């Protein structure tokens, strides 16, 4: 990016690589990690020397504040290898800006842009072999920040650790997804931390998601915490509804995560002549459209799966199935985004970022 000086990164290489032991054809998402990790500590009001070290456990004091007060934020991004061995990131500035926005909301310090990009590129080059060619293969990148100061005093930590770990991933298919529209629990609240990619948001949604799982749903569509009348997100994804030939999605707010994939879906849809209405979407409207047959699709958007179509949904006592269609917006838009990510198509939006 706009670095004038070269960021000094201390590198300690792993003695040997684990890659030979990895079965790349049977990966469980997020369970295998590459040989190295990026770490940088914040003490006395500033970030220290960034380092790349062999992937290893973190040693933290049991009183480290992250364990007690959930000062923890993260990001999810991916690196792709094209057929000519080029390595690409997708809109990484968005992730960089967002992790700092999330940090600010959690009273945590922002991370410098040159440390982030130099650290990430150096790490990806060191672990380059882990980024595999071929349809659906990618390297999932997980930057995160945690509060490390040893003290259970209920105030913001004075020490933090910024870490990046990477995990090889295959294309994600979770089977048919049926979702339950939330009418009691909420993922986030007005004035809360829903717009931050904060670890605590995930902890808070596991319990209601487990309840929905018991009723036969894979995910919950979250509604606004004030009235439960408006549809906001699907699980950990943003959510789109197709009524007739139009796409609807909720505007971002302090309850909704401003997804990179969401923005990209809106741009690709509009570039393909699809009308996208970004406005509050009422549960009532979607139920009525399902009953009258004008509701054609529901899909979630997020980095892990890009787009995840929804097969059906439940609201209170009612269950609805969505029509199966081979010319869905979901599959057209997903293909357009993936082709840009893998450098198989023109990138009119300037979204690709080459790792050299
Ligand atoms: C990460 C996330 C998304 C998707 O964001 P992308 O930038 O598209 O990956 C959507 N909703 C929530 C709650 C999230 O945490």
Automatic annotation (TrEMBL):
The keyword Transport does not apply. The keyword Amino-acid biosynthesis applies. It comes from the Bacteria. GO terms for biological process: isoleucine biosynthetic process; L-leucine biosynthetic process; L-valine biosynthetic process. It is an enzyme of class 2 (transferase). The modification N6-(pyridoxal phosphate)lysine is found at residue 197. CDD domains: BCAT_beta_family. One of its GO terms (molecular function) is L-valine-2-oxoglutarate transaminase activity. Pfam families: Aminotran_4 (PF01063). InterPro entries: Aminotrans_IV (IPR001544), Aminotrans_IV_CS (IPR018300), Aminotransferase-like (IPR036038), B_amino_transII (IPR005786), BCAT-like_C (IPR043132), BCAT-like_N (IPR043131), BCAT_family (IPR033939). Pathway: Amino-acid biosynthesis; L-valine biosynthesis; L-valine from pyruvate: step 4/4; Amino-acid biosynthesis; L-isoleucine biosynthesis; L-isoleucine from 2-oxobutanoate: step 4/4; Amino-acid biosynthesis; L-leucine biosynthesis; L-leucine from 3-methyl-2-oxobutanoate: step 4/4. Its EC number is 2.6.1.42. It catalyses: L-leucine + 2-oxoglutarate = 4-methyl-2-oxopentanoate + L-glutamate; L-valine + 2-oxoglutarate = 3-methyl-2-oxobutanoate + L-glutamate; L-isoleucine + 2-oxoglutarate = (S)-3-methyl-2-oxopentanoate + L-glutamate. Keywords: Amino-acid biosynthesis, Aminotransferase, Branched-chain amino acid biosynthesis, Pyridoxal phosphate, Transferase. Its cofactor is pyridoxal 5'-phosphate. Belongs to the class-IV pyridoxal-phosphate-dependent aminotransferase family. PANTHER family: BRANCHED-CHAIN-AMINO-ACID AMINOTRANSFERASE, SUBGROUP IIII AMINOTRANSFERASE. Acts on leucine, isoleucine and valine. This is Branched-chain-amino-acid aminotransferase.
């Amino acid at each position: 990016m706009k670095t004038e000086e070269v960021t000094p990164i201390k590198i300690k290489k792993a003695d040997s690589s684990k890659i030979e032991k990895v079965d790349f054809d049977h990966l469980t998402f997020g369970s295998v990690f590459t040989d190295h990790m990026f770490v940088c500590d914040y003490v006395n009001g500033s970030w220290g020397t960034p380092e790349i070290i062999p992937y290893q456990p973190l040693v933290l004091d049991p009183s480290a504040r992250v364990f007690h007060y959930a000062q923890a934020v993260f990001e999810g991004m991916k690196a792709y290898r094209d057929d000519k061995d080029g390595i690409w990131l997708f809109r990484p500035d968005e992730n960089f800006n967002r992790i700092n926005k999330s940090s600010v909301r959690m009273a945590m310090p922002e991370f410098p842009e040159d440390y982030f990009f130099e650290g990430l590129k150096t790490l990806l080059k060191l672990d380059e072999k882990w980024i595999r060619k071929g349809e659906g293969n990618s390297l999932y990148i997980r930057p995160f920040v945690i509060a490390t100061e040893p003290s259970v005093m209920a105030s913001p930590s004075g020490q933090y650790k910024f870490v990046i770990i990477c995990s090889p991933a295959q294309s994600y298919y979770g089977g048919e997804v049926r979702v339950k529209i939330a009418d009691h629990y909420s993922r986030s609240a007005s004035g809360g931390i829903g717009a931050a990619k904060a670890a605590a948001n995930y902890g808070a949604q596991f319990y209601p998601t487990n309840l929905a799982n018991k009723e036969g749903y894979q995910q919950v569509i979250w509604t606004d915490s004030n009235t439960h009348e408006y549809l906001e997100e699907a699980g950990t994804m943003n959510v789109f509804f197709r009524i007739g030939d139009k796409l609807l999605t909720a505007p971002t707010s302090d309850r909704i995560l401003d997804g990179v994939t969401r923005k990209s879906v809106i741009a690709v849809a509009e570039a393909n002549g699809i009308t996208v209405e970004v406005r509050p979407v009422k549960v009532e409207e979607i139920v009525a459209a399902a009953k009258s047959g004008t509701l054609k699709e529901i899909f979630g958007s997020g980095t892990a799966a890009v787009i995840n179509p929804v097969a059906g949904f439940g609201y209170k006592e009612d269950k609805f199935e969505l029509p199966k269609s081979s010319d869905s917006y979901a599959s057209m838009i997903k293909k357009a985004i993936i082709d840009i990510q893998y450098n198989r198509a023109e990138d009119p939006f300037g979204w690709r970022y080459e790792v050299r």
